[in-house]
Each structure stands twice: as C-alpha cells, then as structure tokens.
Write a structure and sequence with these properties.
Length: about 600
C-alpha cells in the first residue's frame, strides 16, 4: 500500500519519479506527489489528490532537479485531499519525507511536539516523522534518522531529504518494503522493482531494521547502530515488456489472457511423467520429511485464501492428509496450535501482505516450518519463509488477482500429487492427473476464444445489484472467488456460497432480481448441484450456469449457459474460474468502472 520512489543521478528527477510512480500506482492511487531538488536550489514540491496523470498536469517541464522522492498514496490516516498527500515537510520545510506504513504512536508524538509549539498541516500519521527529524537534526541526516527511528512505533518504509544535504536520500525500512536500484552513476529507491525496471536490473532488497543512504555515486546500507551491512546485488528477473499492456485495454484483461502461458510456466519442470509425480525443489524438504507430514495448514488472504481453500480440499482428497486453509488476519490473533508434523504454507501473490506476513512470523516464532507460495521474487514473505515455490506468473499489475490465482492452484495440484504419490496414489492415477494437467492451457485457450459470449452475458446481467455465485466441493471456493472478483471491480454485491448451503439462509434472497451463477462440473456432485438449481428456479430466480460441453440438462434448466471443455473431475476449478473472471471484467466495463484500479483498493495490502 502506497508506493515510494526516489532518485539520485543526472537525469531529470521529476520524469524518473513520475514514471516510477506510474508503475507503482497499483499500490495506491488516491493522491500523489513529488519533491525534487538540485545543488544550490530550493526543493520543488508538487502534490495533489487524484492519480499520477493528475499530478503530471501540475509538474511542468521546467521542474528542474536531479534528485528527489515521490509517493502514491492509499489513505490510512486523514481524508483524501491535497494536504494529506505526500511528500510531507517539516515545519521549516527543510526536511521532506515520504512514508508507507502506519505510525501507531503518531498522536502521542504529535501531542508532545505541539506542546513545544509545533503546528501540523495534515491529518496524517506520517507528518510527525518530518517534524521529529527536523527537531533532532544534528547536521548529519543519516545520524538523525537513526536517532528518530526508535521513537516510532509501527511500520514504515521511508525516504527522507534535507535541504542542507542536497543529492542525498536516506531510506529506512520496518515492515514496508524498500528496494534499491543500482545504476551507473545513478541510484534508485522504490517500494518494488516495477518502479525501477526501466532503468536498471540490479536490485538490493532492504530487510526490516535496515537503512540506506543514496547519492548518485553509490549507496551505503547500515543499521540503527550505524553498523555497515553488506548486501548482495540481485538481478531482477522480470522484463520491462512484462509490465506493459501489450495492446489490451486493461491489465486485468491482459492477465486473464496470460493464464494459458502462466499455467504452463507454473508446471514447467515440475511434473515428472516417468515417476508420475510432481516435484517442487524450492520446498527444501527431503522425501522422508514430506512423508512425515501429518497436517497441512494454508495461510492467506483474499484471492490467495480462495486458492488455499482449494489446495487444502485437494491435499486432503488426493493425499489423505488433514488440511485446512486459514485467513491470515484471523490466524495471527488466535494463538494457533503449531505442531512439528504440520506443514504451513503461506500464499501471497505480492509476498508483502501484512496480515499474511505477520501470521507467518507468528507460526515461525512458535517453531512451525513455513513454506511460501509467492509470485513477486525477492518479496518479504519469499525471503523470510523457510523454503517455498515461486509462481512464475510474471508481474500482476491489475488490483484484481487472476493469473496468480490459477498459478497458485497449479502449485497446489503439483504438491497434492507429490504428497499423494508418496502415500497411496498409483502410478496410473498419477499419470492420468499429469496428462490432464498438461491439457489445461489448451482448454483455457478455448474458453478465452469464446470471451465474446461472456461479454454478451455481462451486457445482459450487469444491471442487477445482487448476485449469488454457487458451487460445491472444489468449486465452492471458486464461487467465492467469482463473487469477490465481481464485487471488487464492478461494485455489484455478490456472495459466494456452497450451493448446498443456500437453503440454510441465502435462498431468502432469491427473486427475479437476484441472479445466481452456478458452477456445474461433471463430477460426483453434479446431480446435487442440479437439484440446487431447480430449487432456485422454483423461486423465480434467474440462472446462469457454467457447465461442461454437452450438458443439455443444465442448459435446459438455466436461463443462460456458458460451456467449458471436459476435464478430469478434480481439475474443474481452473476452467470454472476463467469465465467468472471474464464475467466480472465485462460487467465492470459495462458499468464504466476503473477496472485496474477499483475504488478504495490497492494491490498489496501492506497495512493491517
Ligand atoms: O498479495 P496477496 O496474494 O497476499 O494479496 C491478498 C489479497 O489482498 C488479494 O488477493 C486481494 O484479495 C485481491 N485484490 C483479489 O483480487
């Protein structure tokens, strides 16, 4: 949440910062600002409510400066307006800061400062940082920041400028990501690598408790006691073209279409037909250790949680290991029972979700072995987990997660397959699953080729204010995911439910203005789902079904049906979810929504 960018070098800093902020906009987009300077001139600070394109309007070409910091905000404290936008300055204007995170004791600090005459401008928690740095400024910015940080309670990624020390940025991290980009006679600082990818592929990831000083000449990483920390320069594995829209209208549309390739990549080198099993090298576990696993707990939020629910269902079904998925925000505070023969998986596209990160640390504190399933390479969860697997879906920019979800599923299927093969699953059954998995990308392509049919459905149904998404078994979490997608980008209210559960309450909602979207695979529960459809129809409910090619019975009952290819009965979640993603996308388009940056949301939720 919130994006930070910093630059020191010879280029026009305002351009680098605006470009960087544009790339980071998915982290927060309610207001933005930059502050630039050059030796011997005053800082120029421009900020405003709105998107980066609005900020660009007030940053004229004549904003000179070769170093500076910028910020794109997702409001936590104080309403969305020009004043609360970052950067924030100290009272005299000598200190300028940008901040990502939450300063929990800001009111206490602010009251203390007010008692000695300080007058604050904004309602933010962040402004207090600039005031404190000014108050304690010793003539050395690094030293002062080191002295001020222990006064702050909460989380931060910060970048700081001081007028007396032109060309220098001091950054610090505690709970909010910061990465350094190393260029030739130029240095970059950012919340994530997408902001710097256009300029350098050399990154240094800061850990919590670390600080950095940047000048165009180079950088110095150190801790709060001023002990030097040697950091490794790592190559960023992503290409710039991966974060372009490539002819699609929206990132979400592009990412839905990328699933054919991203699922293939997730499987690549991880399925072995000779031994009819899967292999996930990054788990750092020997087969005999995996064999001792008695329980699996999957920890995640949002879409990743829905993937986790399917993962747990599948591991229990295929490998006969007790498995469950937990919301990270809840697990952290329930004093979880952590056992040595349990394997914990944290699932996070961004690898930065605060709830998931803190839940992971709590399990680790209790001695649990935690493995990560992340997409963003070098992210905090990826680095702090005890092993794990990268999704390799490529950068996911749209706030609504799509391709990461199917890649998370892919990893869970490989995992369940290998755990099952170590126990009782036969070579024949293992091979059958692998062969079916390998056909999935082609099946998904066939669904995408019919996207216009879903677009037609969206044209017909986007006028409704409430939806039910219904499925059973492995497809119940898919119904939850479909409902989440629809509400987050179209703002239509939707509930994802077990089709069996509606008669225990939600059926009261059914009338001709609340359509139900049923997921009907040809699995063991198909007939039961059809019965649930009839129950809805009997109450005048409108029915949309996603069913398997040739299922005329479902087509006869539903008002509208979208057909997907036939696959193995355990693999339908992959094929069921894609039509729901497209449905949400086209409904949002019909309603004129901001698909990639829906209101009130941000891509990675780095605050609790
Ligand atoms: O980066 P993560 O996978 O940890 O993010 C978890 C959720 O915040 C995320 O999936 C969110 O629900 C998405 N906006 C859903 O589309």
């Amino acid at each position: 949440m919130c994006g930070i960018v910093g630059y020191c070098g010879a280029r026009a800093a305002s351009e680098v910062l605006l470009e960087g902020l544009k790339r980071l906009e998915y982290r927060g987009y309610d207001s933005a600002g930059i502050c630039v300077g050059s030796s011997g001139t005053d800082f120029e600070l421009l900020k405003r409510k709105g998107k980066i394109r609005d900020l660009r309007e007030i940053v004229g070409k004549d904003v000179a400066g070769t170093f500076g910091i910028g910020h794109t905000r997702w409001a936590t404290h104080g309403e969305v307006n020009d004043i609360n936008a970052h950067p924030h300055t100290s009272e005299s204007g000598d200190v300028v800061i940008v901040h990502n995170g939450i300063i929990e004791n800001y009111l206490e600090l602010r009251t203390l400062l007010e008692k000695t005459g300080s007058v604050f401008q904004s309602d933010t928690d962040s402004e207090v940082i600039a005031y404190l740095i000014e108050k304690y400024y010793s003539g050395n910015l690094e030293e002062t920041v080191r002295k001020v940080l222990p006064l702050l309670k909460g989380t931060y990624g910060i970048a700081v400028l001081h007028k007396n020390e032109p060309g220098k940025i001091v950054g610090a991290r505690n709970g909010s990501p910061l990465v350094l980009g190393v260029g030739n006679q130029e240095m970059f600082l950012a919340s994530d690598v997408t902001a710097i990818l256009a300029y350098t592929k050399n990154a240094v990831y800061l850990n919590d408790g670390e600080l950095v000083t940047l000048t165009s000449e180079g950088y110095r990483t150190f801790d709060i006691h001023d002990t030097l920390i040697q950091k490794q320069v790592e190559e960023i594995g992503w290409e710039l073209e991966q974060i372009e829209k490539k002819g699609f209208d929206h990132y979400m549309e592009k990412e839905i279409h990328e699933q054919v390739a991203s699922i293939r990549r997730a499987f690549q080198g991880r399925l072995n037909k000779d031994s009819a099993t899967g292999h996930l090298g990054g788990l750092n576990m020997l087969p005999y250790e995996l064999l001792q696993v008695k329980r699996v707990v999957i920890i995640a939020a949002g879409t990743s949680y829905h993937a986790g629910l399917i993962g747990a269902y599948l591991i229990e079904k295929l490998a006969r290991i007790s498995a469950s998925a937990e919301l990270s925000s809840e697990l952290r505070y329930k004093n979880p029972v952590v056992e040595h023969d349990t394997l914990y998986f944290v699932v996070s596209q961004s690898g930065e979700t605060a709830d998931t990160l803190y839940a992971m640390r709590e399990v680790q504190r209790k001695g649990g072995r935690v493995l990560g399933l992340c997409n963003v390479i070098g992210s905090t969860i990826a680095r702090e987990s005890n092993g794990g697997v990268y999704l390799h879906s490529g950068p996911e920019i749209a706030v609504a997660s799509t391709k990461a979800f199917t890649s998370q599923l892919a990893i869970f299927y490989i995992l369940a397959l290998s755990l099952a093969r170590m126990r009782h699953l036969s070579v024949e059954d293992g091979l059958r699953i692998i062969q079916a998995l390998e056909k999935l990308p082609d099946h998904i392509q066939r669904i995408l080729d019919q996207a216009d049919k879903i677009e037609e459905l969206a044209k017909k149904y986007h006028i409704y204010n409430n939806f039910l998404f219904l499925g059973r078994g492995l497809n119940y979490p898919v119904a939850m995911e479909g409902a989440l997608k629809l509400k987050e980008i179209s703002y239509i209210h939707a509930e994802g439910y077990s089709a069996a559960e509606i008669k225990h309450g939600p059926i009261a909602l059914i009338n001709d203005t609340t359509p139900s979207l049923f997921l009907v695979p040809d699995d063991a529960l198909r007939d039961k789902v059809i019965t649930n459809m009839k129950e809805v129809k009997a109450r005048n409910g409108r029915l949309i079904a996603v069913a398997v090619e040739g299922d005329t019975e479902v087509a006869d009952i539903a008002d509208d049906v979208f057909f997907i290819p036939h696959t193995d009965e355990i693999l339908y979640p992959f094929l069921m979810v894609v039509p729901t993603q497209l449905f949400a996308y086209y409904c949002a388009i019909e309603l004129g929504r901001d698909v990639d940056q829906p209101r009130n949301l941000a891509k990675s939720v780095t605050v609790e």
